[in-house]
Fold this protein.
Amino acid sequence: MHKYENISDPVIKRLPRYYRFLGELLEKGVTRISSKQLSDKMGFTASQIRQDLNCFGGFGQQGYGYSVESLYNEIGNILGLDHNYKAILIGAGNLGKAVAIHMSFEKRGFSLIGIFDNDPAKIGTTIRDLTVTDLDDLEKFCTENKTDAAIFCVPKTAVAAIAARLHALGVKNYWNFSHYDLTIDFDDIIVENVHLNDSLMILCYRISDANDAQHLSEDQ
Amino acid sequence: MHKYENISDPVIKRLPRYYRFLGELLEKGVTRISSKQLSDKMGFTASQIRQDLNCFGGFGQQGYGYSVESLYNEIGNILGLDHNYKAILIGAGNLGKAVAIHMSFEKRGFSLIGIFDNDPAKIGTTIRDLTVTDLDDLEKFCTENKTDAAIFCVPKTAVAAIAARLHALGVKNYWNFSHYDLTIDFDDIIVENVHLNDSLMILCYRISDANDAQHLSEDQ
């Protein structure tokens, strides 16, 4: 596996999108693509795409474009999707259930090995092929099963205490759907947040900002 | 309502977080806070916070800190949360259902007024207090009910056709959970994406990158 250093954050954030697009091209049987064609499909400029892909040594040959399959595989490697990190999900409510059922963890570098809740009505029920486990058994489970990451789908008031237990167990990688900022408590963790409320408020801002701009121009 | 111009994108993206934190402080009965205290709680530097809040005219008085309530209300105004935009949700599967039930739309500037699906097994069922409507009735519904925004919780292969129908109806603001990039088809829309697969792959990258770095340092 290649090791790439100093990849900037904006490039990293674009990688999944490249990966998705290239996967779609592969499915359609496309074998080669130019940066111009990628640019038309992805909405990035061709020069941005060349610059991004050059971070990884550049797979393109002048005039021949990129091999879709090599590029797809290499970006998958860079993302580390072959790692099969073991993840547990905390919170089997509506959101947790949807995340468990909806996501293709295996294709994204993870497998979901456990689901936990403290609600007696949920403990013992089955989601996907997993039985919801009592949160009290978290320590036992993580000791018996190598656990790389935890997914938080619990109310923000519940996160800190559960994160402290996981952190003590050495589980320090989190996919966090709760509106709680875990980095305030720990500085040796990896967190990727999905803050749905924040995203919805930003949509609200953009709509109201565009409407205001329209009204201002109508006034003139 | 104040109108602020030229607020940079990074500042906009931080606004919901300020709003959340200030809301929590209000609930706890805190009336004033200094940028230093906000900084400790939020993980931004105090100078960044002062700089951000200065974009809106600066609410702080030297030595007195900020009035939590004024700042909270003002950021709510800037976000446009009092607008009550009418939103419909397309796709009543696991994810759509979770989004419908889980979100407090009213607190985030929206109200959810309709849920649509094309699956006969889902049409007619109730989610929240809404009956799932046949997607065939989309035009009728949007003509009869002022609709400001649509939420996509459908597979990516279904998005383009539905977006084209909504766009023709004048519904051009989208909260998009599908892995389909709507900006490729339209240049006069507002989209806020929640790409869960991309987020999970970025978590995978960060874990594998940190592990690689650890191995490299162990090698030395």
DSSP finds eight helices and nine strands in chain A.
